[in-house]
Amino acid sequence: MTFDEFWLAYLGQHRKAGTRLCHYIGTSVGLVGGIGLAVWGAYLAAVVVAVSGYALALAGHFLIEGNKPYATKPLWGFYADLLMLKKSLTGELQAELQRLEPADAPVTQADVRH
Q1: Are 59 and 22 in contact, with CB atoms under 8 Å apart?
Q2: The Cα angle at residue 15 between residues 9 and 19, in degrees rounded to 5
Q3: How far from the centroid of its chain's Cα atoms is residue 54's Cα?
Q4: Helical pair 43-60 and 17-28, crossing angle rounded to 10 deg
Q5: Tens digits of per-residue pLDDT, 16-54?
Q6: CA distance 11 to 93
Q7: What sections of the sequence does the record tag as coiled-coil (predicted)?
Q8: Which of 26, 40, 104, 111 is spaced 20 to 30 Å from 96 by Cα?
Q9: Whole-angstrom distance, CA of residue 111 vs CA of residue 6
């Protein structure tokens, strides 16, 4: 499997804007908070914040998307999460979502906003 194949499968599990928003918030809180607290020497708090951020990202799958997290390759998944955030911020995500198979649930403009 190439990263591009993984990326499309990953996007297919993140069609709903709310799921992606949970990932954006969870990843940002987990990374910034976790690293910031670790730098200050608050290691236990850093772990709690990082795990909480990850939990928020997971919750989006169960509560919003109605699927299970796509965790076949954890390092690629982490990179794909950061790439999804970057493409959302730069306006490139809509084009990526349009690459998904038409047989899957359609991607609407409301799903692309976040």
Answers
A1: yes
A2: 110
A3: 10
A4: 170
A5: 999 999 999 999 998 888 888 888 888 888 899 889 998
A6: 10
A7: none
A8: 26
A9: 20
- Residues 6 or more apart in contact with residue 61 via CB below 8 angstroms: 13, 19, 67, 68, 69
In the block, residue with structure tokens 């490139």: 92
User: For the purposes of burial, counting CB atoms within 10 Å of the CB of 53, is it exposed (0-12), middle (13-18) or buried (19 or more)?
Assistant: buried
pLDDT range class, residue 106, cuts 50, 70, 90:
very low
Distance CA 88, CA 86 (A): 5
d(CA 37, CA 52): 14
Token pair, residue 55, equals 């939990």
Count the Cβ atoms, other than its own, within 10 Å of residue 101: 8
Q: pLDDT band for position 87 (50/70/90)?
A: very high
- Considering only CA atoms, which of 7, 4, 5 is closest in space to residue 80? 7
Please tell me whether the overall predicted TM-score, pTM, comes out greater than 0.90 for this model.
no
Instruction: Report pLDDT digits (tens) over 44-55.
Output: 888 998 899 989
